[in-house]
Amino acid sequence: QEKSSRLSAALFGGDCEISLDQLYELLKYAALGKCHNATQPSWCRIYHQSHLAGVVVIVLHEMSQLHFYKFYLQFKHLRKVFQHRFTLSPSANFLASLYGEGANPKPQNTAQGLTFTSSDRMPKNSYLQCDPIIRKYGEKKRGLTSYTLTLEEQKKNDYPIKGSPGCQGYVYTECDQQRTDSSPLFGLDCEMCQTAKGNEVTRVSLVDAQGQCLLNELIKPESPVVNYRTRFSGITKKMLLPVKTRLPDIQTRLKRMLPRDAVLVGHSLNADLQALEMIHPSVIDTSLLFARNEGRRFKLKFLAKAVLGKEIQCEQKLGHDPAEDARAALELAQFFIEQGPAKVAELNLEMLLTTEKLTEVSQNKAALQPQGCRVQKQLNEPPHLSKPCFLDCLQVTGRKPLLLGRQELDSSGLCQSNLSTSNKQILQRALEDVPLSTFSIIQFSLGPEYIASHLLAGLCEKVRSKMTDMLTIYAGPFEESFCLKSVKKEFGRCGPIQSLTVVTETYQPYVCIQYEVLEAAQIAVESLNGAEVAGSCIKVQRPVTAAMLDCDVLIKELELDVENEGVIYVAGLKKSLTETDLQEEFSQLKDLETLFLPKDLQSGKHRNCCFLKFQKSQSAVDALEVINGWTVKGSKLRSRNALASGHLWRWIWQMNHSSGKQGGNILHEKMEQLSDSEQDLRKKVKKLDHHIKKLYRSLKNNTLCIVLFPGVN
Asked: Does the predicted model carry a pTM greater than 0.70?
């Protein structure tokens, strides 16, 4: 929640266009905090960045602001939930910028600009003294008892503790015998599936100090499985169907198998013991043993390769093998104990991880570069900046970004089209994987058949036409000799007029008025229909066309839009009034937060209307009652709830003033083609909105979520 009234004023005041670089700033700081020279965005502020659970960017491929307003009613969830909207100024490809093609260039094979110093530039002793492993354990070799977690460490790292409130019903292993440096080590690992109850253990493995597998059992969970997480657990529905073994059976077997002085070893072993609902007093946790700065942890897969030279959790295999993971954790603990902290520190694991990540990313980019990357830069170009790109920095910190989309986005930043992938399949993957990732980019697409240039041109013309009709009213009939000046003055009190023409094709003259803002046209319809103007009792209505049949519904939804909450429109102001004058006039209104006085975007002159934003919705309702009929400097004011937020107001102006309209025959042909596919398009957009709703509801609390309409250029 942004707390700045200045930003709030900018949001509804029309000054709400941001650049790709500004979006990049926000995402980088949200994801990295103060790591890798990330700083607070220049245009807004994130409070308590460390509390963010994750960042999710939903990219609606090749859709633009045009699609949002054309299908405003279909985007029911999107417009009701997302509070802040910004116009993204035309710029380079968004995804490319995250990979370093925009705000930051591609990284080279060297790790430039990262905040570490390689060991060959530092005296060995000095380097070792800085290593978190040496700071924690010293340089001398010790026995295994020096590396078991203390009771305080177990409490801090969420281990089940005997007698603690959250562990009622947990089974105690009763391994109470005094530990010595010759006590036996056992590796333990579990795999979990998501059930209606939460995470439940479905497989457990136990290995002894020689690496022999003593136990490798499937377990039938108590509750129905809702997500097998096969990609990680290796568990399938078919595997669990014949299984009769339950958790109490495994608890009994483990309790019987473990000697009284057993030391359990595992990687983040607390999660395994919690899943097993068991308490064991003596543990070595390899995720804590191989210490890192700032509480970060190495992954088991990395440690196995860097320390033991073993490949585990290979992508070719279906899920993790708990026996393999238990054995790897056990061997890591044995290596640490036998070699001692100094030898482990000399491996310089932090440096190895950084080099591995950057090399992997660079190799991926080099391998895929010839296969149709949209970006034209070559790998051998020198970098413009010394900083690595954003997603590379994420990978270096161990937070591999999740990239899902119809175009098979990968860690190289290149796109390989896979048109057979549906939005539904992408959604299913996202629902499973997004909660496990700290930074995710999910890309949905309407499909190439809906983004052809001729269809977009027709769509644009339809939106332009509907917006024009919503800004237009017809008033009449008037007497033959009516005073046009009086009519213009009366209707001008509703808001700024774009054009006014007399309709003479009718038996009696009518007036066609096109306003610059939606609120003005709506006030004219609401307040002047049936009124006496220029000596005639007139009717005021909008044009009646097929596209305008849902106008009343659209007006109602715009009024309820979250961006218009607490915002009212006031018209009938004298153009000579300044912002200071109005601040003084409206100062008595309760909870007034911001006043915005629109200007003509060409001349820079003030309009005869303004917008008022209140801190509370009820205060805005109360202000409407006070302001309607209020006289300021001789002008009678009219007001209503706001309909068009700043960016919509600006967009309408741009549409009305843009040039280069299509020729009649060409446009007619395009409109016919569009009508054929528009019904399908409407259904697709509605389904897309439903996908966003499902994904949004699956996110953890404190997740920053951004939906991007990047457009086609």
From this structure: no
